[in-house]
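Q: Convert this sequence to structure tokens.
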Amino acid sequence: MKKKKKHKKTDLSKSPRVHRVSFLLNNDEHKALSSHFSKYKIENKSRWYREIIFTHVLRTLEEDYPTLFDESEMRG
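A:
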């Protein structure tokens, strides 16, 4: 009898991150973020940055989603 092969399901949130993104902050921005991280006990800064960025991206995509009518026609 043949054994069935088990296929591992891949979860998008667990796919390997291979693309590095970096950016610079000025002193005031860094101080504000450091204060925020301390106040809210945020230890995983990379995860926080990803969550904030993709929250914005997904909200923007939702707002820009094409509709059948223009906003002025719907308010009409």
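Residues 26 and 32 are 10 Å apart (CA to CA).
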